Amino acid sequence: DAMVIQNPRYQVTQFGKPVTLSCSQTLNHNVMYWYQQKSSQAPKLLFHYYDKDFNNEADTPDNFQSRRPNTSFCFLDIRSPGLGDAAMYLCATSRDFGAGNEQYFGPGTRLTVT
Amino acid sequence: AQSVTQLGSHVSVSEGALVLLRCNYSSSVPPYLFWYVQYPNQGLQLLLKYTSAATLVKGINGFEAEFKKSETSFHLTKPSAHMSDAAEYFCAVILAGGTSYGKLTFGQGTILTVHP
Fold it and tell me: Looking at beta carbons, which residues of chain A come within 8 Å of B87?
């Protein structure tokens, strides 16, 4: 089945130690998104790629970076994780960018910062 | 600016009872509306979407929602709750124009509890 895959499902990192989260998709969608979801909150968009074009949300901290080396893969890099970065990180894809394009979500990676 | 408001952060129903989760939106341009479900430690799964084709939208797992422009609402219903429906539900909107064009904006979420 076509799907969005996130690895690992659970990640523990130390305060200040860089960490990378991975997302891959078999849907061949043009757009890939990264969301941060803290406990009991709605997902918050960090950034998205339309093909190779990177689009950062204005309030996304510089500590968060992303790479999309090809259509299938997208990575979220947290350069110096703080305790406040502990959250569920969700990757999503959509065929195109625009109002009628539903987003398909992966299972998420739960990040713990010790 | 667009916003989505879900009335009630927690809803509790008995198994077999009607499920009603409320969502209101504010938008000056035509909205596209979505309901997603999230089970614990899982990603979001699309239940249904409204894209202006029909005001009553049927989704998966027996859920449906009705778009009411006059009330700016898109409430989610299911006639008979199952234990497996216990989860968190998010209403979301994408606008067809404006500065937030194409971006999914979520409501605060409603946790549905189903009692035996």
Answer: none
